[in-house]
Amino acid sequence: MGSRDDDLRYGGITLLASAEGGRYPCGNSLLVAGTEATALVDPSIEVGRRGRAVGPVDLAFVSHGHEDHVAGLHVFPEVPAHAHPADAPAVRETEALLAGFGMDDAAADVFREELRTDFGITGHADVREVTDGDVIDLGGRTLTVVHLPGHTAGHCGLLVEPDGFLFIGDIDLTGFGPYYGDVSSDLDALEASFDRLRGIEARWYGTAHQKGVVEGREAFLAALDTYAGVVARRDETLLGLLAERPRTVAEVVEHRLVYRPHVQLPFVPTVERRTAEQHLARLERAGVVRAEGGTWAIS
Ligand SMILES: [Zn+2]
């Protein structure tokens, strides 16, 4: 096996340790070994670094089509990768991945280059589509697909049994809070996914980033509440801005609801815009804000 001494083990699951502790642009990749086959889950930059030493790998599973979750897939071009139909195109093709962010052309040009140089993304020929409830049998160990949309439309978790390890991908329980800034993102769907997760009993809840693995349902539920609470905090930030005076969406984007002021990534403006628009739409439906002219104001 290609695991190292500093990798973390949970039953039959190995989490590949990274120098970044899973922090973006890195991520947590899992190796899940059955008696018949070994699955590689969310091949990250760390997999790119280790190369074939990670192997042998028989199949891959990708929770969703974001760059940090497919960065190591090029190490195993011959292996079938599994993803939800809504995100499978982004796993197959760099251009589909890029299109998911809905950036303008100039930002897309910058990010296209980063996908190639920083992430090593090449696209993947053999991508097979899996949906909620599908089971991948590794021999004495199974992976059950749990569709958890919202972050992206095809975002999926994976329940590994008999270990009771639930991989929840980018519902990553970090202080950053939930991300729903893609073209296919949907905040209401994401909150429904949180509710679904609250009902799933597992021993371990594994995230794709620096929060790592949370043990026990009680600790998981507390972490999920804190994480989900960031959505309400963004509402408060937004309402605070509108309380000062009516604002255009561009002004809200400029102030930022999601990223800190110093963060300069090509997708920040579009992510901020889509996030602001979803919050405004929800607050409008709730009768809390209203559009007037080109601005938004407290009702
Ligand atoms: Zn993601």
What does this molecule look like?
This is Metallo-beta-lactamase superfamily protein. It comes from Geodermatophilus nigrescens. By secondary structure, the protein is α/β, with parallel strands linked by helices. It has 2 domains: 219 residues, 4-Layer Sandwich (Metallo-beta-lactamase, Chain A), CATH 3.60.15.10; 65 residues, Arc Repressor Mutant, subunit A. Helix content is 33%, strand content 19%. It has 9 helices and 15 strands. Strand 10 and strand 11 form a beta hairpin. The radius of gyration is 19 Å and the shape is globular. The site of zinc ion (ZN) has 4 residues, from loops.
SSE order and pairing:
Elements: E1 8-10, E2 13-16, E3 29-33, E4 38-41, H1 45-50, E5 59-61, H2 67-70, E6 81-83, H3 88-92, H4 94-99, H5 105-117, E7 127-129, E8 135-137, E9 142-147, E10 156-161, E11 165-167, H6 187-198, E12 204-206, E13 213-215, H7 217-244, H8 249-255, H9 268-285, E14 289-292, E15 295-298
Parallel strand pairs: 4-5, 5-6, 6-7, 11-12
Antiparallel strand pairs: 1-2, 2-3, 3-4, 8-9, 9-10, 10-11, 12-13, 14-15
Helix pairs in contact: 8-9
Bound molecules: zinc ion.
